[in-house]
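> forwarded from #structure-qc
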């Protein structure tokens, strides 16, 4: 059997393309809201996380300054950050010798206009160096991101940040609005 170079190359490319992201994360299956019983509509199940996230998404794109994580998860993230990230990135995320900051200019410039999905993916897939993805679960990495946003000066809110990729992708990193 003879495969043309082009076909072979294409096959290799598509094989490569499939591997990364999907294999790395255990994403929760979106819950289907039962439309047949109105009392179970999103509004009625306040406190249900899926409904809260659906509400955020329905409200449109947002930024890191709009209370996108909870203090509880930021505190949990702090515990992991202190154990697994702080030696290099410093207690306030300002970085250190040979290590870039994760707060301040990192978010204001380098990650400007990226989404929290991009930022979380980077941290989860690359950090800590040599033990990539091993600081905790995918949700633990989200909690670390919440702690980094806390260090950066963003205020917490009522709805936790989760491994729901739509939720993460809906939140953009921008400079703190003036005023
Ligand atoms: C052994 C030192 C070390 C540890 C521990 C470490 N990092 Fe890093 N981190 C680095 C270095 C070096 C870079 C720059 C690498 C690059 O740009 O590719 C970096 C880059 C980053 C960046 C991108 C910063 C930017 O804007 O360039 C993030 C976010 C990050 N690390 C998060 C984490 C998190 C979260 C942890 C803990 C789970 C962690 N790091 C642990 C050394 C470390």
């Amino acid at each position: 059997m003879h495969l043309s170079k082009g076909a072979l190359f294409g096959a290799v490319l598509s094989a490569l393309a499939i591997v990364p992201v999907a294999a790395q994360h255990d994403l929760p299956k979106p819950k289907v809201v039962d439309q047949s019983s109105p009392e179970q509509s999103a509004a009625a199940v306040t406190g249900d996380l899926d409904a809260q996230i659906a509400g955020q998404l329905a409200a449109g794109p947002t930024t890191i300054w709009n209370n996108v994580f909870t203090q509880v998860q930021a505190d949990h993230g702090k515990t992991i950050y202190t154990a697994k990230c702080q030696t290099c990135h410093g207690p306030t995320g300002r970085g250190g010798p040979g290590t870039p900051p994760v707060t301040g200019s990192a978010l204001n410039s380098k990650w400007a206009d990226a989404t929290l999905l991009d930022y979380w993916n980077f941290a989860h897939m690359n950090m800590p160096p040599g033990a990539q993805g091993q600081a905790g679960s995918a949700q633990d990495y989200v909690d670390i991101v919440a702690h980094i946003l806390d260090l950066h000066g963003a205020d917490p809110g009522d709805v936790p940040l989760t491994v729901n990729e739509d939720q993460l992708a809906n939140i953009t990193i921008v400079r703190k609005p003036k005023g």
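QC bot note: The first helix runs from residue 5 to 18. The radius of gyration is 19 Å.
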